[in-house]
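Worked Example 4.2. Consider the chain below.
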Amino acid sequence: RCRWEARIMAPLTTRFPVPSDIECAHSVTPVNIGTIAKGLGLDEEEFDCYGKCKAKVKLSAYQNRSGDASGTGKYVVVTGITPTPLGEGKSTTTVGLAQALGAHFPELENKVVACVRQPSQGPTFGIKGGAAGGGYSQVIPMEEFNLHMTGDIHAITAANNLLAAAIDTRIFHESTQKDEALFNRLVPLKKGERVLSRTMRLRLEKLGLGDKPIEEFTQADMARVARLNIDKATVTWRRVLDTNDRFLRALTVGQGPAEKGYNRETGFDITVASEIMAVLALTTSLGDMRERLGRMVVASDLDGNAVTAEDLNVAGALTVLMKDAIEPTLMQTLEATPVLVHAGPFANIAHGNSSIVADQIALRLVGEGGYVITEAGFGADIGFEKFCNIKCRYSEYKPDCAVIVATVRALKMHGGGPEVVAGRPLADEYLSENVELVRRGCSNLVRHIENIKKFGIPVVVALNAFASDTQAEQDAIKAASLEAGAFEVQVSSHHAHGGKGALDLAEAVRRACSGASRFDFLYPLDLPIKDKIWAIAKEIYRASDIKYSEEAEKKIELYTKQGFDKLPMCMAKTQYSFSDDPKLKGAPTDFVISVDDIRASVGAGFLFPILGKMPTIPGLPTRPCFFDIDIDEDGNIIGLM
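Applying the procedure from the previous section yields the following structure tokens:
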């Protein structure tokens, strides 16, 4: 067990200029995680420590408080404008706001929790770096946060690839065995009795054979039970890896001599794009996760019927692999504010939000008068839209306030500034005053504010301050934001000063949360698939039309026939524009979006249209982040950001 000790922490000491992220992270000794857990009111039986700085929080922490009269806290979602490739500090703002609320308002001690996603090792070793925040607003230890943490992503990789192996193996064995022999292997006879696993019993019930004695099965019954008759041309399930590797986007499996004649074209996705990651993020309990994993559709049979993980008799094994991953990981900020880290779906190729389970636990732990700060990935046109239309549908939670993060740098880009490229020095326009560029770029911020207000949520603009910003530029952003209907606009310097730099932002969020919100969804689920896609394209992106590929049209027809047309939409598109063209900056209108394909994540609970050519596993740049990552003679990690 963790050793508890008094939670005594000296005020955060900052330096200027701000050192590297890893130096800032190392400037503070973390409080023992058992102390953080105790401060939140967790009983010893409700968490398990993973070393001194991490703990897995059990689902009982929510279940034990589900009828608690103390109520739940205020629910705040942090989103952003359309970002540059450098990012605009959304994670940093989430952490900084949590530090401001939790460490600088005595009445809120132990009543503030940040809920964030676990970072993928793709960006960590690729182009963007880690996701612990930055400067003096970070989750610590940042090395443990950005790397393996408690192994959840590895568990998802294992589960996903077990299912992929089950699909190809089933196709192989069905093609090489006769009906009765196949049935006898799947439902073996031992000591005179048939061995029926739980998952096979569920399959019998699905086929209407649950009450029929197996001894009375006909040859036709045996064939129905044993044969899935997967049409291998329809297999949508892909293997995954938590690494950026463009050379795995398309490949052929089954090239070995023993599998000759059973090869097929497929590819890899990055692990955080796996449907199992989405299931983890959207599940509400262990039983719910077991059901969702079983409902995942992997292919169609030769008659056009959906084939699921439950049909493959692997859903129970997948749940076992995910048994520990369903528990959020408790960590802390540089100022000892609690953080629940859980799930990590990308927002451009998945739904981009941390887990419902973490939010459930956090909202109960902070209780009435407390605050839970969660983050939606990339810009508000992607992560926030999915937060509202997907996550909030399944959690039934309604946000009290949205914080939208903006930077002078990004707004200059949207105003027509030079291209911003990771690894390349910024152009002079970004380092010197240019109010006109900022004013023109505010069109992007204004549209995001307008879109958030469509959901009935008050919007606070957090202007993430950089040293090169000028007062005139910040004033232009404030004026445009307030005119667009923002509740308040606050300049925040949490990167340089920690929670102290976000005090004005924290006060604004508290004021916004004190009012009433009238949260509503953008579209009803009973609309046809195309109408739901159009609702997002028209109201959020401001597109003038949609072009569907032949493949997308086929998928719409198939998923409607299979009964999946009542699911919400999870649009996969570039994060760098309202459109599906990353070069269209600002607030474009009168453009056409292209739906090239649609996939079904039935277990997670959504369909995801793919807009344009959207790779589901990123590639590496010329000079990836791993160039700078190393370890010194004392075993200390260096170069991680």
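The first helix runs from residue 21 to 26. The chain has a mean pLDDT of 95. Compare this with Example 4.1 before moving on.
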